[in-house]
Amino acid sequence: xxxxxxxxxxxxxxxxxxxxxxxxxxxxxxxxxxxxxxxxxxxxxxxxxxxxxxxxxxxxxxxxxxxxxxxxxxxxxxxxxxxxxxxxxxxxxxxxxxxxxxxxxxxxxxxxxxxxxxxxxxxxxxxxxxxxxxxxxxxxxxxxxxxxxxxxxxxxxxxxxxxxxxxxxxxxxx
Length: 174
Prior knowledge:
The protein is built from no helices and 14 strands. The protein has strands spanning 2-5, 11-15, 30-36, 39-44, 53-59, 64-70, 76-81, 87-92, 97-102, 108-112, 126-131, 137-141, 146-150, 156-160.
């Protein structure tokens, strides 16, 4: 479930919950949240009677605006908005790729990354992502112990990091 609090910590509202209860918005494992302008995007790894992942978009009052279900594959894990709140990006730990959706209607726009692997553009367990002010995408890869960068055309640019505790290394980046 998602809970909203005021700046002073006062509880305001909650939405969602586990599918076997009487909740109008089903969310079993909301993994990530991203806010852009007047909208909140949630990456929900599992939910519903079919254990489907979903992307859910709410307004700031936690009213559902749109939802896209992903039955059986491509469970969303990390979620991020572009700077104009026009696109939502999400990571999939099942397909080892990044997906880009149009925010209006949550229609598929593009897919990038080469899938499972350790080479350039390949990913293993892409957990979270974010975009910089130029629209470049940065992805934390949990099992590759690195961060990968993709440009605005969704092309692989570079990766950095490896397993360890020395400068420049990562241990299961989240």
